[in-house]
Every structure is written in structure tokens, then in C-alpha cells.
Write a structure and sequence with these properties.
Length: 259
């Protein structure tokens, strides 16, 4: 129990709620869609892999698959129009993500651009498509999936980290603008989760979660009305602490930890 009122209207009763998750064919988005379906929500799952979305619908009756590429603003707009014509959306989650390890001595501009396209601009495409309807209704919730990798510069994170930093800033600004208009806005910053995105990591990932554990933390964070939903705390609190270190100490520690 907190001394302070929650930052968002708590999302506790999912029965009959309509939720659109973009980036739901695998990993965290897929597990969150399954968890919400189990709680009674109608889930609309989007991503590029049609087969994975169809499999989801097969196993989760009443859910809907909507194939799209989040980097295609026209396709995202068309999908939103189609959904909104059938009724309002209660929660919209941007969970699409792309990750390739990159360092400055192997800078790859197409890959850098790809990260911005998927991780950041895709989110903007979704915002543009759903915000007018959410604002007109004066209720609903937007959730962006960032990462603790957006807190500070990190090794191997030349392409990924800046896109997550941008999402964190975006979510904070959206909260300021949209909360007074009745909307909820949350930012989800996971630590390491075992998904296709992290499968190529060659290093041991501390405090690694399953997608199902991540989904449980997200659902709990929404129920608690949190703005930033970060997990697992045993890892993310250390990552947060890095933000408070003086630069000299930060670079020394990260330099020692980096092969
Ligand atoms: N796993 C972690 O440790 C971790 C940690 C912090 C943050 N995150 C973030 O969590 C989110 C989910 O990642 P994940 O770990 O669950 O990885 P994942 O299993 O690879 O999921 C990524 C999802 O994004 C979709 N996607 C990728 N490009 C897309 C595009 N152009 N258009 C539409 N959908 C697209 C993928 O589906 P298709 O390929 O079918 O399009 C997939 O559904 C990402 O934002 C990621 O950055 C993950």
C-alpha cells in the first residue's frame, strides 16, 4: 500500500476490455496477450508473422489477429481504423522491438536506422493512429515497452540503447500531456527476458525472466496504477542506481565490466 495515489487509473478488471498489442507474435507481447486473455480481455494481436498470430488466436478463442508491419504508418493507420470501427480500445501496448548488439568500431548505419524505425518510429505510427480516438473518448491507456537499456549508455548498445532512451522520454512527455485528459500512460522497462530478441546474447544474462514472469509483472504494474513498470527489481534497481553515479565512476565501472 503506497502513501501516494497511483499515477494511473489501476487496470484491475480485464473482463470485456479490448486490448491491442503490437509486437505480440512472440516473447513479452505474446505472453502478456495470453495473460490478459486469461483474465477475460479481448486481445487483438499484431506483428508481421501471420502464422504465429493465427496460432495465438487458435489457442485463445475470441482474440483477433491483425498482421502488420509497425514501420508502415499507412498499414498501422488502416489497422487502427478497422479496429476502432468495431468499438473503442481500452488499452494499446507498443511492444514491437528489434535488437542487434553493436559497438562504435563496427557502426552499421542501416542497422542503426532499423532500430529507430522499429523501436521508436513504429511507436509513433501507433500513437498517431490511436490517439485521436482515445482523446475523443477521454479514457483508455497507452503503454510503451522501453528497456532499462535506455537509462544510460551501455556496452554493445549503440543501436538499441538510444531508441529505448527516446521511448522513455516519450512516455514521460505523453504522461504529462495525456494524464490530465483522462488517459493512462505507462512505460514498461524490463530487465533481461528469455525471448527471441535476447536469444543471440553471448553473455550470461543476470536475473533472467521467462516471458510469462514478465507478463505477470506487467499485469501487476497495471493493476497497481504504476507509471514505470520495471522488473525484476533485483536487477532493475541496480540499473537505476547507475543513473545516479558520477560519470567518472560510471565509466570506470562499465569499462571494467566490458570485455
Ligand atoms: N527480452 C528482453 O530481455 C527485453 C528487455 C528489455 C526490453 N525488451 C523489449 O520488449 C519488447 C518485446 O521484445 P521481446 O523480448 O519479447 O522480443 P521478441 O520475442 O523478439 O518480440 C518482438 C516482437 O516485436 C515484433 N516486431 C518486430 N519488428 C516488427 C515490425 N516491424 N512490425 C511489427 N512487429 C514487429 C515481433 O514480431 P514479428 O517478427 O512477427 O513482426 C515480435 O512480436 C521489445 O520492445 C524489446 O525491446 C526486451
Amino acid at each position: 500500500m503506497s502513501l501516494f495515489p497511483s499515477l494511473n487509473p489501476p487496470l484491475q478488471d480485464w473482463r470485456g476490455k479490448r486490448v491491442w498489442i503490437v509486437g505480440a507474435s512472440t516473447g513479452i507481447g505474446h505472453a502478456t496477450a495470453a495473460a490478459l486473455h486469461g483474465l477475460g480481455a479481448q486481445v487483438i494481436v499484431s506483428a508481421r508473422k501471420a502464422q504465429a498470430l493465427d496460432d495465438f488466436v487458435q489457442h485463445h478463442p475470441g482474440s483477433v489477429a491483425l498482421v502488420l508491419d509497425a514501420t508502415d504508418s499507412v498499414a498501422v493507420q488502416a489497422a487502427a481504423l478497422q479496429l476502432l470501427a468495431q468499438g473503442p480500445l481500452d488499452v494499446v501496448m507498443y511492444c514491437a522491438g528489434h535488437y542487434q548488439a553493436m559497438r562504435a568500431d563496427a557502426l552499421n548505419l542501416p542497422e542503426l536506422r532499423r532500430h529507430i524505425e522499429v523501436n521508436y518510429l513504429g511507436g509513433l505510427n501507433l500513437l498517431q493512429a490511436v490517439l485521436p480516438a482515445l482523446l475523443a473518448r477521454g479514457t483508455g491507456h497507452l503503454s510503451l515497452v522501453g528497456s532499462v537499456a535506455g537509462y544510460r549508455g551501455l556496452p554493445q548498445s549503440l543501436a538499441y540503447g538510444p531508441t529505448k532512451a527516446a521511448l522513455i522520454n516519450l512516455a514521460e512527455t505523453l504522461y504529462l500531456d495525456l494524464r490530465p485528459k483522462g488517459l493512462g500512460v505507462s512505460l514498461i522497462n524490463p530487465g533481461f527476458v528469455a525471448t527471441p530478441l535476447t536469444a543471440g546474447n553471448a553473455f550470461a544474462m543476470p536475473a533472467l525472466l521467462t516471458p510469462e514472469q514478465a507478463a505477470r509483472a506487467i499485469v501487476q504494474g497495471w493493476a497497481d496504477g504504476e507509471f514505470e513498470i520495471h522488473f525484476p527489481k533485483r536487477f532493475t534497481l541496480w540499473m537505476k542506481a547507475l543513473r545516479w553515479l558520477p560519470d567518472r565512476l560510471f565509466f570506470y565501472l562499465l569499462g571494467r565490466a566490458t570485455p
